[in-house]
Amino acid sequence: MKTCYLFHGDDNYSSFQKVHRWQQAFEEKFGDMNVEIFEGKDLSAAQFNEAISTLPFLSEKKMVIIRNFFKDAPADELKAAADHLEKIDENCIVIFLERQKADARTALFKRIKKSGNVEEFPLMERYELAQWIANEIKNNNITALSSKIINQLAETVGPDLWQMQQEIEKLGLYAQSGNPITEETIDSLVSPNPETTIFKLTDYLATKQAERSIKTLQTLLDKGESIIQVLFMIIRHFRILIQIQDCLANNVDRKEIARKIKQHPFAVQNGIKQVQNFSAETLANIYEQLLKIDIAMKSGKIKMSTTDQTELQLTLERFILELCN
Question: What distance in Å separates the CA atoms of residue 243 and residue 251, rounded to the nearest whole number?
């Protein structure tokens, strides 16, 4: 067994769960007195050196878990910690756990990769997410759901497994009372992820469903998103669609599109389906109209205050109605 590990990536739910399982298994065998946990922002290289070089207490092994060291520690501390790696006691297991992707250019990353083990946890692809949902539904004693409902749940929440786990637990409590889980149940009980809701709003715009478009906009506001943030999300989404459309016109494949525009394949897959509903001219026109709204808001032509943003909301609703007509 190697003595040093780095778990990192955008799917921090899976990485955190893996470390949690390792910690539980370790404590069952060696006890919790030989587990040390540090937060990266509070850990100096000197403390790191002390933790990894001291012997276990009345045990064969010790475990040192360091959270978000790459993200929160100063650059000089990262470099100093890299120099200390060779001093890890053979009876010590060191785990670096990051809630996002670690910088592979750092000396610490390179040292761990050379002498330890680096595992990245990217966000799940659509088929992986559907399988994960099916397994969690079984673990929560929910009667097996149809693939259609599972896909609806995946589209509503997206690849955020922290939120998905909470939504599945919520559905489990609902099902305990003998209630069937239907498409209507997902719509009414599951809190939509803002980005997936923007996808839904765009679908309604493409098919000129004005009432559903405005209702979806209101759903975002009811969930606590500010109308300004919603506008920015819509602008960003249509900018991504324009980029995807341009890539498709140049015969760029899906994986390369994701790399080129720096978006997850999950979002690119949905985007590819959506751009088929818009011509290049229509997308350009929509984007231009959204930018005009943005400029009007920032220049004061749309009257707003911290307590009253009604005029911006009415402007967005008018934009939706005009587009759907």
Answer: 13
The tokens 């978006």 sit on which residue? Answer: 263
Q: Which of 125, 165, 129, 123 minimizes the C-alpha distance to 147? A: 129
Distance CA 188, CA 106 (A): 46
The pLDDT tens digits of the residues spanning 176-190 come to: 888 899 999 998 899
pTM for this one? 0.77
Which residues does the chain have with pLDDT short of 50?
1
Percent of the chain with pLDDT over 90: 64
Write down the pLDDT at residue 93: 93
d(CA 283, CA 245): 9
Q: Which two tokens stand for residue 63?
A: 């475990």
CA angle centred on 236, ends 307 and 301, rounded to 5°: 40
Residue with tokens 């790459």: 70
Distance CA 52, CA 265 (A): 38
Residue 310 CA to residue 216 CA, distance in Å, equals 17
